Amino acid sequence: xxxxxxxxxxxxxxxxxxxxxxxxxxxxxxxxxxxxxxxxxxxxxxxxxxxxxxxxxxxxxxxxxxxxxxxxxxxxxxxxxxxxxxxxxxxxxxxxxxxxxxxxxxxxxxxxxxxxxxxxxxxxxxxxxxxxxxxxxxxxxxxxxxxxxxxxxxxxxxxxxxxxxxxxxxxxxxxxxxxxxxxxxxxxxxxxxxxxxxxxxxxxxxxxxxxxxxxxxxxxxxxxxxxxxxxxxxxxxxxxxxxxxxxxxxxxxxxxxxxxxxxxxxxxxxxxxxxxxxxxxxxxxx
Length: 286
Ligand code: OOG
Ligand code: MG
Known about the structure:
Elements: H1 32-45, H2 52-55, H3 61-77, E1 82-88, H4 92-98, E2 104-109, E3 129-138, H5 149-154, E4 156-166, H6 177-182, E5 187-192, E6 208-213, E7 216-222, H7 230-242, E8 253-255, E9 263-264, E10 270-275, E11 280-284
Helix pairs in contact: 1-3
The structure holds 2-oxoadipic acid (OOG) and magnesium ion.
2-oxoadipic acid is lined by residues 86, 88-89, 94, 98, 131, 164, 166, 168, 173, 180, 185-186, 257-258.
C-alpha cells in the first residue's frame, strides 16, 4: 500500500508545535512537556501509572491535545513518521467500557505498524488489548470544518479491515478524557488487512465483523456501531482537527475506532476479526 507521509510540518512550529509551551506552568509543576515525558517513559519502560489528572486536575482537553502533540513531536524527533490518524471511543461498546462518551482523535506513526504475520510483542507492552476497526486510506487531503460523511467518503481511496492493539499507559485502562487524549488514545500497534475495497463498492454500515479468540467468537458488530457509519467518524476527525488548525493529508491511514470492546491478548493467543467483505485480519500474541 503506497502511503504518503506529510505530517512532519505539523509537529514543528505549527499550531500544536513545541515552541509556545515552555511558559505554561501548571499545577504542582506539571507542564505540557513534563506530561509528555512521563507518558513516553511509561511506554518505554513498560510501567503503567496513575492518571495524570490525579496530580494535575486542571488538565483540560485543549491542554491534553497539546500534551499529545508534544508526545508525537518527541516521537518524530526520534525518527518516527506520522502516517495517519486514529479515532477513539466512536462506538457505544467502547464508550461504555471506558466510561467516556466523547470521541477523540490521536496520531498513527510508522512505528505502530504491525506487518501481517508479525506477532504482537507482548513482552514490550504493558497490558495489550485488541479491537477490530474499519480503516480508510485517503486519496485526497481532507480539511474541515464543514466536512460531512459524504464529502469525507469522497476523499477515501480504499477501505480495509484492521485490528488495533491498544496499550494504555494508565493502570487498568482507568483514565479521564484528558488523560487518554494526552496518552495518544492508548495507541500501540495496528495491522491492516490486505483486502481493499473502493468506498462505493461496500456498504460499511452493514459490514459485519466477528471477533474471535482462539477460535471462539467473543463479540460482533457492524460498521453502524461506529457513529452510525464509519464515514461519520472520518468527518468527525476532519472537523475536530480543523479546530486545531490541522488536516488529514492525502495518503493518511485513518482508524475509525473500535467496533466492539477490546479483548486482552496473552502470549500464544490468536485473535481474528472476520469481516463479511473486507476479509480476515489475524494477530497472535508473542
Ligand atoms: C482508548 C483508545 C480508544 C478506540 O478505538 O476506541 C480506541 C482506550 O480504549 O484505551 O482506540
Ligand atoms: Mg482503536
